[in-house]
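Trying the structure run again after the queue cleared.
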Amino acid sequence: MTFTLPPLPFEPAALEPHMSARTIEFHHGKHHQAYVTNLNALIKETPLAKEPLEEIIRQTAKDDSKAGVFNNAAQVANHTFFWQSLSAQGGGEPPAALAEKLTTAFGSVESFKEQFKQAGVSQFGSGWVWLVADDAGTLTIIKTGNAMTPLTMGLTPLVTCDVWEHAYYLDFQNRRPDFLQTFLDHLINWAFIAENIKQVKAGA
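Done. Tokens:
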């Protein structure tokens, strides 16, 4: 199959003033598109060309000879998930049921935010910070470097924030902590998290 750039779930300017249309246009239209283009070129006329994206990620995750395929496939998936993690109606306080789950896992919603931000700030170099669930439905925060994804760890991603510099440099320059705070205060898609938690329960 040939992969295509997934459309954004919002208009490029919908997240302003918290994330600029210019950032979205470069991040989605240039960076995300490049991963799609590279992946298609790397798998062309190989057995992987017939596989869905998640299967390509799983098959190449620990194969150093296919590191290029993995990096591009995982970044296609990670970015698609990131766009869904954002919402123009995001931020603020989560719905009561989700707030209860976050409080159980992290002590309070505020503590979740603090731990999520700290994980993102402390990720050395490029990478991602994630809220994930294991098969038992236990929520944890993890960070991954470069293209690494919870999909290779037996974990279900619930929400992510991209901490590669291209995600925030046009708007925040080197102020990654400010970007993460803005994500948590104004952009995090609580409804997306709640829906993903339901899917964990459904598959348990």
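DSSP finds eight helices and three strands in the chain. Worth checking whether this holds up in the mutant runs.
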